[in-house]
Amino acid sequence: MRRRLLALLCVTGSLVSGCGLLPGDHGRTTVTVWLMKDSASKEFLRRFTEDFERTHEDLRLDIRIQQWTGIVEKVRAALKADSGDGPDVIEVGNTQVPLYADGGRLTDLTLESMRDWGKDTWLPGLAQPGKDGNKQYGIPWYAANRVVIYRKDLFERAGVTRPPKTREEWLTATEKLNSGGTQGIYLAGQDWYTLSGFIWDEGGDLAREQDHTWRGTLDTPAALRGMDFYRRLQALGSGPVDADEEHPPQAGVFAGGKVAQIIAVPGLAQSVLKQNPALKGRLGFFPVPGRTPGRPGTVFTGGSDLVVAGNTDDQFAATAVVAALTGAKWDTELARTMNYVPNKTDLAGAVAGEEGVAAMAAGAAHGRATPHTPQWADVEADNPIKEYMTRVLNGADPATEARRASRRITESLAPDVG
Description:
Protein name: Lipoprotein
Family: Belongs to the bacterial solute-binding protein 1 family.
Region (Disordered): 396-418
GO molecular function: maltose binding
CATH class of the largest domain: Alpha Beta
Low-confidence stretches: 1-18, 20-25
CATH topology of the largest domain: D-Maltodextrin-Binding Protein, domain 2
Pfam family, one: SBP_bac_1
């Protein structure tokens, strides 16, 4: 019978071995866990540990907080280390799993996912990037995605009595709001994550794999329809066509008081209020509208998965930690504590009392991630989608520019054979 496990949390920056025995532990196994900075509060980790200790017997946790900067190479190096020298459980960005699954350096968790963890109800934007072929390596932990943050007072002034439910209602409402010196929406011309959602809603993709070859697909009719909707919406404000949402930071623009809507994660509202406290009580949230009233728009889902290193000394111990952190009890507790979306669609009710997070959860149910290939990072490094968007918004022919951008995406996705 598999042994029961006990956890004792040590949040530390020092280096220790992975799953193994430490002096004075009286036979207890130590599991090293890498979590990213600000993913979970110290108080959450303390409470998790206390509960874990009551239900397990012989496990000690050494949790190390990591920085996002430089993490890819650090994780890759750890996965190549000798057994027992690195982390056993690692938090990774949901779209990073393909970078680490290459070469068989992660533990296959397909059986546990199907038998014990209810994978059928996982958020698709976290679950799909965690797969490599038919094998599940990344286990969804938490999600975040964009919603519409809006000014309730400006909506009321313009006669918009409720948040729009469809794209066409959204355009109509935004046109009403775009008057009297107020921008109906501030949407930068190179916000390609938002564009991705519109493309997915139309049935298109940024890129697709066929016969083991990835190709850019911005030039498909569906993708072009998504770009056309973006163009119509972006025109109902004065967002720069040659910059993304961080140049200038859209929180500052929204705080200026002359913008009715932005598309952002709900947490950005705190930055807005810090810059303009007079907006307190005036901000609301709704999911990005979809094509029909009953289904919110598809959105890019960010967040984290947990993986088990292939070179762990004790797969059972590492897997037990993943099971606890991603299970319903502690996953919903993390979501409430940090204002995240829980990892399963049937857990959305846990955050229903928080308007921004509830709007985020509604969108996450239809979330997607970037194309599932390690080479996608090369696309983002020299992002042709941004240039494509700017050219179209400046009046260039969409089909011509989409073909140009698709060719560049295809070139970036070609495997490196050098």
